[in-house]
């Protein structure tokens, strides 16, 4: 499932992030790359253990905690501490698949990467190129979202970032280990949850709601890896 989650950050929050990142320590993006990714990756990244990365990462996690859409789609068990990258003119990230397991350097915590996320921090009019390109069973999708919006997609997907031809693209990226490991099962649960939300809004007294909510939770109980 490829899903856009709008307005994870407000315009004021994006502005504060951008100001804070101006003074952040930027390093070669390959500091967090595996062998495969290192062959294709050319970007910059905020030093993972810097005060800026920790502060802004916690702010992203706080914002996600307020997003019901994110919870419904991801069913998060663990979220890898958000990282921050920058693509300047000529920079790119060729086709790759994210590593299955990520280890957080500071805590040595390991998570399984079921989902990948990119939170855009630069308005699309500030740069040319830089689209996130994700391939799935329905074809190839190019993603370039407003600042503060996020894209969520299976970490199993082949994806890349097109070369920047003007300006710079700044974003946050991270991975999620879901309570439901299988993407198809997660998608069914999300579709069912969204149907329940619509029915609750439009026909709150419908007796079928109780049954549908029961089905949702019983499927979650069956498929959860907790």
Describe the secondary structure blueprint for this structure.
Blueprint: E1 3-5, H1 11-22, E2 26-28, H2 35-38, E3 41-42, E4 44-46, H3 51-65, H4 68-74, E5 76-79, E6 83-87, E7 92-96, E8 101-103, E9 110-112, E10 115-120, E11 128-129, E12 132-136, E13 139-143, E14 150-154, E15 158-161, E16 164-166, E17 169-178, H5 183-202, H6 208-223
Antiparallel strand pairs: 1-14, 2-4, 3-7, 4-6, 5-17, 6-17, 7-15, 8-9, 10-14, 10-17, 11-16, 12-13, 12-15
Helix pairs in contact: 5-6
Structure description:
With 226 residues, this protein is of the alpha+beta class. 33% of the residues lie in helices and 31% in strands. It has 6 helices and 17 strands. Strands 1, 2, 4, 5, 6, 10, 14 and 17 form an 8-stranded antiparallel sheet that branches. Strand 12 and strand 13 form a beta hairpin. Helix 5 (183-202) packs antiparallel against helix 6 (208-223).
Report the sheet with the most strands, covering strand number, pairing sense and barrel closure: 8 strands, antiparallel
Poorly predicted sequence stretches spanning 5 or more consecutive residues: none
Structural class: alpha+beta
Number of helices: 6
Task: Tell me the total number of β-strands.
Answer: 17
Overall mean pLDDT stands at: 94
Shape descriptor: globular
Topology as a string of helices (H) and strands (E): EHEHEEHHEEEEEEEEEEEEEHH
């Amino acid at each position: 499932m490829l899903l856009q989650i709008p307005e994870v950050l407000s315009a004021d929050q994006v502005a504060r992030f951008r100001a804070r990142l101006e003074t952040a320590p930027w390093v070669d993006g390959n500091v967090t790359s595996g062998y495969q990714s290192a062959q294709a990756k050319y970007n910059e990244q905020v030093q993972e253990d810097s005060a800026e990365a920790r502060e802004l990462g916690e702010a992203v996690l706080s914002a996600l905690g307020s997003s019901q859409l994110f919870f419904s789609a991801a069913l998060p068990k663990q979220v890898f501490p958000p990282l921050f990258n920058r693509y300047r003119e000529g920079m790119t990230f060729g086709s790759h698949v994210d590593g299955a397991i990520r280890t957080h350097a500071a805590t040595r915590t390991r998570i399984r990467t079921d989902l990948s996320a990119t939170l855009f921090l630069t308005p699309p009019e500030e740069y040319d190129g830089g689209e996130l390109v994700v391939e799935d069973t329905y074809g190839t999708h190019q993603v370039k979202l407003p600042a503060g919006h996020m894209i969520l997609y299976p970490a199993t997907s082949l994806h890349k970032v097109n070369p920047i031809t003007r300006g710079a693209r700044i974003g946050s990226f991270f991975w999620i280990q879901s309570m439901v490991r299988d993407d198809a099962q997660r998608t069914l649960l999300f579709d069912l949850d969204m149907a329940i939300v619509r029915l609750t809004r439009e026909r709150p007294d419908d007796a079928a709601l109780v049954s549908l909510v029961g089905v949702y939770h019983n499927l979650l109980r069956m498929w959860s890896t907790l």
